Amino acid sequence: MNHVERFKALMAFQPVDRLPMVEWADYWTETLDRWRGEGLPAELEDAFAVRRHFGLDPYRQYWVRPRHWECPSPDHHGAGLIRGEKDYEELSPYLFRKEVFAYDLVQSWKESHDRGELVVWFTIEGFFWFPRTLFGIERHLYAFYDNPGLMHRMNEELTEFHLWFIEELCGILQPEFMTFAEDMSYNHGPMLSEECFEEFMAPYYRRVTKALKERGIVCIVDSDGDVTRAVPWFERVGVDGILPLERQAGVDLRSIRERHPRFCTIGHFDKMVMKHGEEAMRAEFERL
Asked: What three-state secondary structure class fits 218?
């Protein structure tokens, strides 16, 4: 099987010749700095080149961001850019600009992808994540109650941007899967209620997952923390799976699989064992 065939079969619960060997996320700068001190060639600058050096399967991610590169940045992580409708209007010239799509980059992957030598996936920002990047963490949680109209406007405009992007991307190549950047859980579960999810997020998810399913793209939510309670919420709106299934947050894949037998999953390796050496890491793979 080639890489594309293998991934498609696995996500469809069909037999495969082997499991994919994937580290789907990029590496922290500090990680790469340490590895270079341990002998990683200095010229390997991007995550794809590093993964190829380590013999992992070729997977390329394209993350399209709804904020233009000239958009102002918050003062620090978790800080916001807006307080309400007026600020959003002032920021709107930096949002949903079509020149953020790097056509040439995606085009350069097409030949390898179409031969089955490269798995391509993309990331778009979810309907919890995107408003948070504008409001900031604290104001975002209040906004479900203080600015409901603006929350809906944000996610409506984000939905239109996503649908445009999917159409443009699929005009070049057909990705195997995608992720919604969401991160809406912590180690005790979701950061919002099911009622808020249904009102402010579900309608927009359904529109986007419909477009993805029409194109045969596996739809996965990327959320850290304990996602167990949120899995049925996402399943109802057309999401196919979830990652990274953080063991240290209390996620138990066995119980998720029992309740949701056709839900796709990527990850669940307990990274906390890595500091204990090879024997512990091998034991974790055996557990999985």
From this structure: strand
